C-alpha cells in the first residue's frame, strides 16, 4: 500500500495562528442573535453591574442554568472579545453595547454581521490576550485572513471555466501557518501555484480537528457571511455576493495602533490600551461598511418572478413593499419591515379565507415611533382585535429560531392585552420562510410554557408547546 505524501509548512516559516474559539461554536448563530438583542437593550453602566446583568441573561439560555459561574463568565468574555459586542470605557470603567450589537439587534441579519466580523478581523487584534498579542508582534505577524482568502479565490477564478475552491487543510498549511503569507504578505498567485502544485503531486495534509480548527473557523465565518459556498470539503466564491467580495479585495482597512510596537519592547499595559481601542475601531467600522443583504438574491429568488408575485399582492401590501424596495431589491436593513409586510399579507389572506374581506382594509401597520408595543393591528374572524408583534431574522443557515427578545414596552403591552396579543416569529433562510405564532406570551410564561428571562425587557425561549407553525399566506385575488 502506497503511503500518502503529506505537505507540511516548512519549519523555518511555521507559526501557528490562533484565536478565541467560543464554547458555543456549534450554536453560534442562535447565541449571537440572542446576546446582541439583549445587549443592545442594556444601558451604559459600571462594568461590574453590566457583567452581572449580562451573566444573568446568558444563564437564562437553554441548558445554561446548570453551568458554573466560571463557564458563564467565559461565555461573556468570548462574546465580548471575539465579536466586539461590548464597549469598555477606560476613563470611567463603564460598559455598554457596541454599534455592531445594536445593528444586529435592529436588522436581525446574521449574514451581514459575519461580513462585518470578517471585514475587520485581523492579527494582531484586540480579540487576543496581551501576552498572545505580544508573540504575534515579536514574530512580525500582520495578517487579515478573510481578505487574503477572498483575494486568493478571486484571483484563482479569473477567466476559468471550472470554479476553483480550497479546503480547510489547504488554508491551514498553505496560508494560516506560513509566515511567508502572514508576515511577508506573499502574493496570492504564488499561494495558488503552491496549492495547485501540491494537488498535482498528490500531497495530502494533516486534517486533525485540533490542527485545522482556527483556519477552519474563518472559513466557516466566511460561509456564514454568504461570501463562500461549500461543496463537499471545498469552499468556493459565492457569485451572488460578488459586490461584497470585491469590497474585501479592493479595500483592506487596518487597525494600526499595534504597528508602533514592532521591533520594540512593549509592556502588557501598553497592549491593553490598544486592545480597548480595538473594540471602538470595530464598532465604528461596522457603521461605515455597507454589507446589507440582498434578500431576493440570498434566497435565490428570480427578480422577474418576484415582480409577478408582487403584482398579485393587495393594495395595502404592495404599497408597503414598494416603500421598502430600492431598485426592486429588498435590503436587509428593512428585513424587519419586510417581515411585517409578509405578516400583513398573511393576515389579509387569513381574513379572506375566513370570509371577512370587509376587515382587510382595516389591517394596518403601526410604525415604531408610535411605541404601541406591537407592529400590526389585525382582527379575529369575530371582529375582535389581533395585535401582532413581528420578530424577523435572516440567517445563512436554517437555524433553530426558537428565541426572540421583547422590549420592556412590548412585554408590558403583551401583559395588558392578554389574548389579543400575538408574536409572529419569522425566519428567512436560503431555503424557506418559517412562521411560528405565539398567542398571549405573558400568560404562557406564567403557565410555565415559555422560558423567559426578565432583564431589560424579556428574552424568550420557546418550543412547539407555545404556539403553532403556519404557512405564510400570499394574498391573491
Description:
With 477 residues, the protein is of the alpha+beta class. It has 19 helices and 19 strands. The chain starts with a strand and ends in an 8-residue tail after the last strand. The protein has a 6-stranded mixed beta sheet. Strands 2-4-3 form a 3-stranded antiparallel beta sheet. Strands 5-8-7 form a 3-stranded antiparallel beta sheet. Helices cover 45% and strands 16% of the residues. Helix 16 (315-323) packs antiparallel against helix 17 (335-353). Residues 309-330 have low confidence and may be disordered.
**Which value, in Å, is the CA radius of gyration?**
24 Å
Strand content: 15-25%
Averaged pLDDT = 86
The number of helical runs is 19
* Share of helical residues: 40-55%
Shape: globular
Which spans of ≥5 residues are poorly predicted at pLDDT below 50? 309-330
Q: Which structural class best describes the helix and strand composition?
A: alpha+beta
Spatial strand order of the main sheet: 11-12-13-15-16-19
Report the end-to-end length measured between terminal Cα atoms: 69 Å
Multimeric status of the protein? single chain
Key traits:
19 strands, 19 helices, 477 residues, alpha+beta
